[in-house]
Amino acid sequence: MFVVVDWGTTNIRLYLLSNESSTPLIEWRGDTGISQTQKGEHENTFIGALCDLLQAAQEDELKFLEEDSPQLDVYFSGMITSDLGWQPTPYIETPLRWEQILEGETLKTIEFDFKDRVVELKLHFFPGMRTKEDIARGEELEAVGILGTHEKIWDSEEKIDPSREGILVLPGTHSKWIRFKENQILEFFSVPTGDVHAAFHKESLLSRTLPEGPIKIDDSLIPYFDRGCDAQESRGTLASLFLTRSLVVLKDQGLNSQQASAYLSGVLIGGEVKELLAYAENSPIFLGGVESLQSLYLRALKKAEAPSVRLAKKEWTSKASILAVRFLRQIR
Fold this sequence. Notes:
This protein is of the alpha/beta class. The protein has eleven helices and 15 strands. It has helices at residues 42-59, 98-103, 139-148, 193-200, 222-235, 237-241, 243-249, 257-280, 291-303, 314-317, 320-331, and strands spanning 2-7, 12-17, 26-30, 71-77, 91-93, 96-97, 106-114, 117-125, 128-130, 135-136, 166-170, 175-180, 184-191, 285-287, 309-311. The strands form three sheets. It has a six-stranded mixed beta sheet, with helices on both faces. Helix 9 links the parallel strand 14 and strand 15 (309-311). Helix 4 packs antiparallel against helix 8 (257-280) and helix 5 (222-235) crosses helix 9. The longest helix is centred in the C-terminal third of the chain and has 24 residues, at 257-280. It is globular.
């Protein structure tokens, strides 16, 4: 068995896995991301989380440690390997082959006591990736998990051909548009759409007509998201932003704060998609991300008449880092 740790800015997730399956045996989640963890406290935070995970495994009567030499391999991805985290690792420059991620990992061995036994942990900290000017950390593993896996994770039974060039889109706080071909990442763009969306809710005049933070866009708010997409198509992104305020202030328009937030999301996501489709150059689009964001990006891509879009199934998108670790363990 082995453990995968996805430790980002705001959350930490631990998964206990067997060598035979991509489905975690036990999962543990917490809100002690690196922004909530003081410098020098990363090891203690991790050990506390790992003890909770192993305690849950023991209660389920899972045999996760060898009797003679208790040892676990633990694989880390996300911001925990950045200069803000526990163990900074280098950025590998694109073009990036899958196996180069293994070549760039940093190893660390520690011991801790669990149920009166000394357990040796072999910690694997994966590198990030970079272009000449851009950086990513964590998305390189998501890309390997989604593109390198043998699981049927796409919206058809056809298996993706990794020799086929395409664009993998990973929506998020800082979305990534990743060009891939022949089992390697050629280049990528980072787009801080989610970050900008959140900032408008807090740090601008527009915030006075918006909720305190971004909201989940349910079916009742989709028409306002679409209205934002349409506005940026006809007016441009910047010229559409102020309508987030005016459509609430003008009583004959009648938007409330939640509807305005959905409109703003449509303006920003629609603008991102329109600009980056020019970068895609008619390449097929492979869309990952959590289901809520994936559905919004799909709407924006269809409105922008993207030529070809394939969806990763929702049950796999949250497991991309797990799929990547299993794949990398196999090719080691």
